[in-house]
Structures are given as structure tokens and as C-alpha cells.
Amino acid sequence: MGEVTVRQATDADLVELVGVLARAFYEDPQFLWSLPDQRDRLRRIERIFDTILRYEALRHGGVQLAEDGQGAVVGGAVWLPPHHWRDPLSRQLITAPGFLRGYGRRIGYGSAFQSACWQAHPREPHWYLYILGVEPDLQGRGVGAALLRAGLERSDAAGLPAYLESSNLANVPLYEHFGFRVTGRLALPPEAPEIPTMWRPADNVSRMCTDD
Fold first, then answer.
1. What does the angle CA 158 – CA 119 – CA 121 come to, to the nearest 5 degrees?
2. DSSP character at residue 8
3. Contact 17, 155 (CB under 8 A)
4. What is the pLDDT of residue 212?
5. Is residue 16 exposed (0-12), middle (13-18) or buried (19+ Cβ within 10 Å)?
6. What's the CA gap between 154 and 73, in Å, rounded?
7. Tens digits of per-residue pLDDT, 10-51?
8. What is the C-alpha to C-alpha distance for residues 71 and 208, in angstroms, rounded to an integer?
9. Angle between helices 41-51 and 14-24 (to 10 degrees)
10. Which of 23, 27, 20 is nearest to 66 (CA)?
11. Mean pLDDT to the nearest integer, 161-173
12. Has residue 210 got a pLDDT over 50?
């Protein structure tokens, strides 16, 4: 595709970014497992991402989006800064209704996923790539790489490592290309998808290539 511009997201971008991320994750293995009913999956994922962005992520200033040459949002990355990967209980109580509306009767699956993420999460200060999504018809065309590159420039400038969970095994090679290495797997039920955890050391030299 043409030129991609990455910038910080603001509250005004919320609705458009939620739509892009929901479409990007519609067939993600984690959501196929936790929200198998395709009749309302997209709507439920939109509610989940709206909750994450509105109440957890945008306030930390680490959300970035990618725009095409016409200014349309084509992807987004949710980065959480050091010490903010898990909200305090007071903030969790604020976000709980949104997650309940999103998962509905499948809330147990969402809770199992969240608990596994918290259990595996490293305690060393780092930037956390919480979410990375690209419009489905533009995946594999450099948008994800542009978002990764922009986020890692920030962690590199601070001399900090980065961490993520890859809910789609197909994306592991892209993350490895940028210096991440698999460190383990989330402890999920046997029927759940395999979700590796990945770590990028602070002394890693980022590959600022244009391909992905």
C-alpha cells in the first residue's frame, strides 16, 4: 500500500479505532475461542475494545494509530507504559461493566484469559504491547511493521524492554523480526489456543526495515 503515517491517538479517534481493531480481531484465535458465536462476535469485540481504550489505555498516552494517504485509520497499537499493565482494583471496577457487556455469558472465558495474562506478566519495568491490529484487507502490507517500529522507538529511547502476548501464532515471525523472543505460553484451558509470551530486551537493536 502507499505511505502510512503513525501518530498518537486521541479521544476523538475512539470510535474509528475501535472499529478497525474489532475487524482486525474478528477471526483472532482468542476471540474464536472466547466468543464463538459469529452472529454477535463483532459487536461484542467492539464493546471490549471500547472499554479498553476508553477506560484503560487512552489516558496513558500510549495508543498509536496508522493512517493511509487519505487520512483513514488502517491500524492501531495499544502500548501501556511501565507499571501500568494492570489497573488497580478501583479502575477494574470501572471497566468491569464494559467487559461484562462485551463477553456476556462468556465472561468466564474472558476472565480466564485475563488471569493467565496477569499471571505470566513480567514484573520488570517495560513497555507492554497490549493490542496490535490492522484492517484485515491490509494485513501483511507493512502497516503492522510501521506501528511496531513507532512503538519500539519509544521504548528504545527510554532504554526499556518490551513485552507482548501473541494471540495469533501467525504473527510470531513479525515480532521476532523486531527482536522479540518467545519466553513461554499462557496457562489456559486445554481447548484454548496456544498464546506465546514474548520479550524484547532493552539492549536489543531494533530493525527499522520497511518490510514485514
1. 15
2. E
3. no
4. 40
5. middle
6. 21
7. 999 999 999 999 999 999 999 999 999 999 999 999 999 999
8. 23
9. 130
10. 20
11. 97
12. no
